[in-house]
Known about the structure:
This protein is of the alpha+beta class and 273 residues long.
Amino acid sequence: MDGEYRTLSGQGIESNILFFGQENCQPNYIFKGNNVRDNYVIHYVQKGKGIFSSANHPVTQLKAGDIFILPKDVPCFYQADSEDPWSYFWIGLSGTRISSIFQNSLLSQKNYLRQMQDSKFKDYLFQLFDAIHLPSSLANDLLIESLLYHTFYYLLTEYPNPKSKNTDTSKNDLKLAVIYLENNFRDSSCNITDLCQKLNISRSYLYSLFKKNLALSPQQFLIKIRMEEAKQLLKTKDEPIKKIAGEVGYSDEFTFSKAFKRYNGLSPKNFRM
């Protein structure tokens, strides 16, 4: 059996990567260490298959593309298949927010998720695993921190736990929606319908959250972000208006100019003068 195991020395309060590694398992391989962890360990199955179970949950078979987690203080068992043993990588996590993040995701229900290949969560998890192999430096530490929070963000938006909806979750839904729009408004395909699908919430619910807390509809908020960014670009960059339109999420200059004048009372050209 070949693999790797490494630890990281950096310590964070809210979230921290303690260790990471990967394993190409032999047939029927069973982890022989402590099956009750004092941290959280997330595994991604890269190929092959095996079985997994955790306390109060039945044994299930997992395969390439699936994810499972060893939660803190929860007994778990996992074993490679006898004919097609799995290979996986893992990341060990701790911190004050880790428990809350996993509890608010679907991972908390059965401690595994199936077929993650096409998710942004999986994409950022892979990027994170690559980044933690880089030499330690301030720039790389910041990269790892950024990728870690992006990974958590997509875990919560793509795989939210529907049972966690409450008053605090309403505030969290609003926060996640705002973060999503602020991160994606430059993409012309960014829209409220897709946002609702990613958060697994209804459009009417999202509308009420925005109106109650921000006095704007979600669409008005998206327009505001785009227009405020456009104003800054028009003031600070000597770029064609068509290019600026594309940088704030508009696929054509005419539509952008109409929206800008409606928002500011001036056309982009006159605003620049």
